[in-house]
Amino acid sequence: MTMWRLAWRNVWRNRRRSSLTIASIAFGLAAVMIGQSLMKTVQAQMVEKSTGVHTGHIQVQALKVRDRRVPDETLKRPVEIEAAMRADPRVKAVSMRLLYSGLAYSAAGSRGILVAGVEPETEKELSIIPGYMKEGTYFGNDPRALVLGIKIARVLDIRVGEKLVVMAQSKSGNMNSELFRVSGIFESGSEMYDSQIAYISLAAAQRIRGEEGRVSYLISRLRDFNQVDAVRAELDVRSRGTGAAVLTYKETGTEILGIQKFEDAVMDIVLLVIFLIVGLGVMNTISMSLLERLREFGVLRAIGARGSRIARMLVLESVMMCSVGVLFGVALGTSLIHYFGRVGLSIPVGEALSYFLPFDTVIYLRPFWGMHMRSLVGIAVVSVLAALGPAFRAARMGVSEALRHV
Amino acid sequence: METLIQLKKVSKVYEGAGMSGAPKVTALRDIDLEIARGEFMAIAGPSGSGKSTLLNLIGTLDTPTSGEIFFEGRRVSSLSENELSDFRLHSLGFVFQAYNLIPVLTAVENVEYALTLQGVPRQERRARALEALHWVGLDDNAHRRPDLLSGGQQQRVAVARAIVHRPALVLADEPTANLDSKTAKTLLDLMLELNEKHQITFLFSSHDPRVLETARRILQIRDGALVKETAA
């Protein structure tokens, strides 16, 4: 009879109590896994959408820009950095944008907008806006084409093929305007994008602004966004002395990073609470087991078992309960993540975030094994730690005293 | 005869629980005793006279307040906890009044537990445990758990567990208290046979007349002191 077999049988002496402890470990771990998956899936989508519509993975802006989101300073096309980016196999696409505030008016009315001058062909490779087209096309061959959000189109009562004037103040203070024809209307689901942004060609945007050859930023998308820091480090060297700053999406989309940090902190607190519940559950089970079997431990000690052996057996029982709980927890968590990865999970946070970003309100969960493994190890460690107290008590008890216990 | 156990001026005082103000209790006072190898003896006396305390001290389950205990000439009253565990594992066997078998283990697993602790290989310890069960007449019940055995059968398993590792001394605390007359007699005959056949020393604590009739030497204890010794 090995200690393992004895410990295993002891675990099942009180089936109901052990089952409840195992269930608390399993449900706790499954809840943590789903929470982590949900949080990381939301975060991944936030990064994907934010980099897809606005920040890209890497931007090059003028060094003295104060508002990194809508740069208040332009820079001369950074040819050298642009060439380096285009030559880098890790970079999927590079494009230029010029952003400024303006006014759009049609026969029906006018509305303040954010004018975004873009290079349509390269933009298609790095922006997700072309994927949200509701009517018409994302630009075309017409140099005076304009693409705008559905809510602006409704306010201005304008449809694809109709004309629209864009007016803005030039750098020299003059009011300039140009006539455009609506080539497409997009609906991203984001209040901010659908009601504020109108895309025109970069050349047209530069003409209205009187800033030929200048851009707000150079934007790029990488094949793997995890390479962002490595690519940025290399570009940093090339940008020295050019008056340009190389920025990753973490710096241009600071609000995304803030949300991520907040979510991570909430998840840490949830994790701590679940660890605490699991730990107390295990401690309670082992303590009760110790109390009920005190006389039996006295017998084992009388026969010749050392105190440390009794302690090891109690810890082993805890490890076994924890292992069964973890197995069930991983199975349950993985099943639920796969299920919600298939059918999707509608969450209110998606609706809240979609005000600022195009955001899918139905989240399709996927596993994040690195994080799940850390939680699994955490629960295992907590279970062992929780058993240590009762185990040490068992190891130190007096033999005759334990034998007298009824 | 060779001396197996020697007690010199052994006393045991239980301290009163501090806050409750309970007084000190002197359970044993200045006990001098020698037990020879191969004896079959009993400590008799009324409840609370100190029988179990004396048995616990000889079995190293408790430590004396003063005095010394020697086993085969070795002073055991000053051994560390782990040394005491090892000593009990190799030299002593216990039979308790309430059998005290491990309920999740079968009869043969209960018997072989001490051999597991000794590191005896699996096949050998199983063979020795089955042999011990054969000695106590429980061949057919080797693979039953204690809850499927009668009180007498459980106590016989306890005896098999106590002797399987061939200890020098078996300590039996009121071993027949929970058994009917017939079962008690069978058990005592069995222990006497083991004593005679295998030279295992038996020391009982009991006030059961059936035990006292079987014992070859009886020590009477009263109020923590040895008051009389009789030999069969």
Major β-sheet profile of chain A: 6 strands, mixed, barrel
Q: Can you give the helix content of chain B as a percent range?
A: 25-40%
For the biggest sheet of chain B, the summary is: 6 strands, mixed
Q: How many β-strand stretches of chain A?
A: 14
Under the CATH scheme, which architecture of chain B would be assigned? 3-Layer(aba) Sandwich
Give the number of DSSP strands of chain B: 10
Could you give the topology of this structure?
The complex is a heterodimer of chains A (406) and B (232).
Chain A: H1 3-11, H2 15-55, E1 58-62, E2 75-76, H3 79-87, E3 91-105, E4 110-118, H4 120-126, E5 133-136, E6 145-149, H5 150-155, E7 163-169, E8 175-186, H6 191-196, E9 197-201, H7 202-209, E10 214-215, E11 217-222, H8 228-239, E12 244-248, H9 249-252, H10 254-292, H11 294-303, H12 307-343, E13 345-346, H13 348-353, E14 362-363, H14 369-396, H15 399-404
Parallel strand pairs in A: 4-9, 6-8
Antiparallel strand pairs in A: 1-11, 1-12, 2-10, 3-4, 3-7, 3-11, 5-8, 6-9, 7-8, 13-14
Helix pairs in contact in A: 1-12, 2-10, 2-12, 2-14, 10-11, 10-14, 12-14
Chain B: E1 3-14, E2 25-36, E3 40-44, H1 51-58, E4 66-71, E5 74-75, H2 81-91, E6 92-95, H3 107-118, H4 122-135, H5 151-163, E7 169-173, H6 181-198, E8 201-205, H7 209-214, E9 217-222, E10 225-231
Parallel strand pairs in B: 3-8, 3-9, 6-7, 7-8
Antiparallel strand pairs in B: 1-2, 1-4, 4-5, 9-10
Helix pairs in contact in B: 3-4, 3-5, 4-5, 5-6
